[in-house]
Amino acid sequence: MVKKAPVKLYLxxxxxxxxxxxxxxxxxxxxxxxxxxxxxxVEQYLADSIFITNVHREVFxxxxxxxxxxxxxxxxxxGVIETFSVASCILAADAAAKTGGARLVEIRPAMGxxxxxxxxxxxxxxxxxxxxxxxxKTAQEEGMLVKSIVIPSVSRDVLKAVL
Length: 163
Known about the structure:
By secondary structure, the chain is an alpha+beta fold. It has helices at residues 28-42, 57-63, 86-99, 125-141, 156-162; strands at 8-16, 19-25, 77-83, 103-109, 117-123, 145-152.
């Protein structure tokens, strides 16, 4: 896939017994071409694939877990959305990021979670509540929501332990 087009490989590893995940990003056409090659190679072994355009840039940062807690000025609230699949989590994270105000921190895609995924976000309480609400709506439309929560006045010690 990465030889076919100039894409960034975000993740390629087993997520649970019998399942493997590959996450790529980049220019729309490059990702489309790369994804098509991947689909052809795995053919009958492919469980699912998803192609999302116009993804918010914070989704990529959160996939790399590259947002340091110290970079986020407002630590009033922590929001978490858990979903039954990686794809639904990425869609929920994208919807949350596009509401503005809250900052995505991490998307944890399925490793050691039985195929489930979750996204965490920080910001002031109202921004996190709005972002979580938007992400939850997206996950519910897909029938993939496990649980969501907003924790106001979250402590830095909790953040360090969780993130």
